[in-house]
Amino acid sequence: MECVPIGIVHSPFETKEDAPRQGIFTDKPSRITIYEKYRDGLSGLCAGDKVFVLCWFDRAERDILKVKPHGHGDGKMRGVFSTRAPVRPNPISLTLVTITSVNDLVLTVKGLEALDNTPVLDIKPYYGDIDS
Fold first, then answer.
1. Which element (helix H / strand E) includes 120?
2. In whole angstroms, what separates CA 33 from the centre of its chain?
3. What are the extents of the domains in the chain?
4. Average pLDDT for 76-95
5. SS in 3 state form for 29-68?
6. Among positive and negative, which fits the CA dihedral 85, 108, 24, 131?
7. Domain TsaA-like spans what residues (predicted)?
8. Sheet strands (E) in 40-91
9. pLDDT per residue over 22-69, tens digit each?
10. Residues of 97-122 as b/e, b for ≥16 C-beta within 10 angstroms?
11. 107 vs 92: CA distance, rounded Å
């Protein structure tokens, strides 16, 4: 299996403590710089679009399989696959963001909880009729 980043996040969140639990809890803008070789993949993206951003949470722990979820459930330990905790065997994040601008290879987005310099794996459109 090979997975390569298509870009990198530039965000105001330097540490895990700086970042919100979920992207919905921030209005701070982040920028996603897409690498030149993926330029053509940006065609069709516009300000106002909602997209899913998949990142590789490279600073997350990968050997934890049970956690206490924040804000959901009964406070008991649960398996990571039943939570949105960043700790998991493959620390892939999925965040729904709104694009506020597209400027060449840079997407400015609202609602991303990723730390600064987090690798971006993919961007996928949100379709209200099939994603909600």
1. strand 119-125
2. 13
3. 7-60+88-127
4. 92
5. EEEEEECHHHHHHHCCCCCCCEEEEEEECCCCCCCCCEEC
6. negative
7. 3-132
8. 50-56, 66-67, 78-79
9. 778 888 999 999 999 999 999 999 999 999 999 999 999 999 999 988
10. bbbbebeeeebbbebbbbbbebbbbb
11. 20
| Residue found under tokens 């298509």 | 6
pTM above 0.85, yes or no: yes
Q: How many residues does the chain have?
A: 132
132, two tokens: 């909600």
pLDDT-based confidence at residue 20 (cuts at 50, 70, 90): confident
User: If DSSP codes are grouped into helix, strand and coil, which group holds residue 107?
Assistant: strand
How much is the average pLDDT of 112-116? Answer: 95
Q: How confident is residue 97, by pLDDT bands cut at 50, 70 and 90?
A: very high
Residue 104 amino acid letter = D
Fold of 7-60+88-127: Elongation Factor Tu (Ef-tu); domain 3 (2.40.30)
Q: Which two tokens stand for residue 127?
A: 């379709």
Residue type, 49: D
Q: Are 78 and 70 in contact (CB under 8 A)?
A: no
Instruction: Taking residues 110-129, report their average pLDDT.
Output: 96
Residue in this structure with the two tokens 């540490």, named with its chain if needed: 15
